[in-house]
Design brief:
alpha+beta, Pnp Oxidase, Chain A, seven-stranded antiparallel beta sheet, 9 strands, 38% helix, 29% strand
Length: 184
């Protein structure tokens, strides 16, 4: 199963990277997590340097959208965790992981991880169709070069109705950010 999440990694200089990612989890018990970073990503470089990450379950789709579009300023968003990780201040659940092994792939190697620490931060608000639409649009925005601007716009136009009908203020802000990015 793929879990849409936010992953934080830290480079060797202590700079935190916040990125959306869909790691593989074995089931809802979360006894195993496999990360699939793109080789070209900051997340991959940080994982190679430190071998650690924190996987966050969150309903903050605005953060997911912002992180999908580029670097997010970490100020106030994360706190240190046991001197090896940084976790989001606002998330529902988190899993501090360490890479056990790598499976090579030319595009997206697999980082098989051990969960060393985990916690519950706050109850999950839940999702509505607007939140789901923002997550799908954020994924589309990351595929802009593969799919092309016209195809991404077409698919986003089908999702827009759900943000309009069911989204709150955060979903509308996230949607506007995504539309602006896709429109160039």
């Amino acid at each position: 199963m793929i879990l849409e999440s936010i992953v934080t990694t830290v480079d060797s200089q202590g700079v935190v990277n916040i990125a959306p990612m869909g790691p593989h989890v074995d089931n809802e018990s979360f006894s195993a997590i496999t990360l699939k970073p793109f080789r070209s990503s900051r997340t991959y470089a940080n994982l190679i340097q430190t071998g650690t990450a924190v996987v966050h379950v969150t309903d903050d789709v605005e953060l997911i959208a912002r992180a999908a579009l580029g670097p997010v300023c970490d100020v106030g968003l994360t706190v240190p965790l046991l001197d090896r990780w940084h976790k989001l201040v606002d998330c529902c659940r988190w899993f501090a992981v360490e890479i056990e092994s790598w499976q090579d792939d030319p595009l997206r190697p697999l980082a098989i991880c051990n969960i060393l620490h985990q916690g519950n931060q706050r109850p999950m608000f839940g999702f509505n169709r607007g939140k789901h639409a923002v997550i799908e649009a954020a994924i589309l925005a990351t595929r802009l070069e593969m799919l092309g601007r016209d195809e991404v716009r077409r698919q986003m136009s089908e999702l827009a109705v759900w943000v309009q009908k069911t989204g709150g203020v955060s979903e509308h802000r996230a949607w506007a950010l995504l539309e602006s990015f896709v429109d160039g």
